[in-house]
Amino acid sequence: MGSDPERIPGFIYLTPRARALTASSASAIMPRNPSIAPEGAFFHNGKNMVRAIALLSGGLDSMLAIRVMQQQGVEVEALHFTSTFTNPGSLDISVTAAARGARLLGVRLTTVEFTKEMLELVRHPRHGHGKNLNPCIDCHTAMLKRAAEYMREFGAQFVITGEVLGQRPMSQHRDALNLIAKEAGIPGLILRPLSAKLLDPTIPETEGLIDREKLLDISGRSRKTQIAQAKLLGITEYPAPAGGCLLTDEGFCKKLQDLLDHGDFDLDDVNLLKFGRHYRPADGVKVVIGRDNRDNEAIQTLARADDILLHTVDIPGPLTLIRGKWSKETVRMAADLTARYSQGRDQRRVSVSVQRHGEPDDRVVDATPCDLEKYKQYLIT
Ligand code: SF4
């Protein structure tokens, strides 16, 4: 080693294969936040830092995976995939969590809107659905394909994820992890730092870009080890596990399946599934009734020009929306249900306003709070 004039004591050097992998890094790259750059970084020819693209959800696992890489001097660029399915309400809370995580870790974050791709995978999953409509293997594969594009674009050498072996039944067992890496087109280039010691060595490990001994061997669903490791590595802030993906939620998936079964729809229709009780009285028409103020506000926001809105006149009650090819019977049903779910449910008659969304004039009808059994057959549950 001492005879090689290029070698500097204290640095780990790359094999020819690893040099080829890093060849796309054209110039020296320094950490954006030097305060978090650990000692002993890996360098290519004494110039280029090793770079990785990380999938960052903003949760503990993906943050820890990034920190483990930073401990080895890897410069990380983070990618966050967001969709309506990973944001249970109307706010983009997953983006907020990821942005916070990126700031704490000192990494640059790129956000990718992924709802359309996920919807396509829900319709045509190559590897089927999980317990509900979650096409997890295809979804992970699609995200990693996208990450592979960023990897090339940013001159990174590999991709990292916070996946943990055995944590999720469909997509995080050994065969699924291998399949996903292969189908994403970058076998050997997806490093899962939290479980790496339990998995086959990846190219960055075999080529000496990464010290395998410093990676972790976490498996299973318990989060105890991650919490302990996070503490050790100075991650003191991270969000509590969020609501997760709605494609794993049975109630939401029944409503989504109904939408898929009834032809044309757009993203507004998908967003609306997150709020209210949904009735399907006939093909081509739906009635959505708010359950609380949050639902009512969301329904108001998501209403379109052709929708009909109903609400009780003098007493508190839900906001109800009719979308599609409505008939007199649909309006009667929607008015009676609006009355039934209002605080006037014990009255014989309740005044309900019926109005085309955005138009100034409404019509007030006398509605009868009905027995819920009467329309139970149309309720999507
Ligand atoms: S849980 Fe949802 S977001 Fe996660 S991989 Fe499965 S389908 Fe995709």
Short description:
The chain is built from twelve helices and 13 strands.
Structure description:
There is one protein chain. Helix 2 packs across helix 8. Strand 1 and strand 2 form a beta hairpin. The chain has 12 helices and 13 strands. The chain has 2 domains: 217 residues, 3-Layer(aba) Sandwich (Rossmann fold); 130 residues, no CATH class. The N terminus is likely disordered. It is elongated, with a radius of gyration of 26 Å. It binds iron/sulfur cluster. The site of iron/sulfur cluster has 11 residues, from helix 5.
Features:
binds iron/sulfur cluster; elongated; 12 helices; 381 residues; Rossmann fold; 33% helix
Secondary-structure blueprint:
Layout: H1 16-22, E1 43-44, E2 48-49, E3 51-55, H2 60-71, E4 75-82, H3 93-105, E5 108-113, H4 115-123, H5 136-154, E6 158-160, H6 174-183, E7 190-191, H7 203-206, H8 224-232, H9 250-261, H10 267-272, E8 277-282, E9 285-289, H11 293-302, E10 308-312, E11 319-324, H12 328-340, E12 350-356, E13 363-367
Parallel strand pairs: 3-4, 3-6, 4-5, 6-7
Antiparallel strand pairs: 1-2, 8-9, 9-11, 10-11, 10-12, 12-13
The structure holds iron/sulfur cluster.
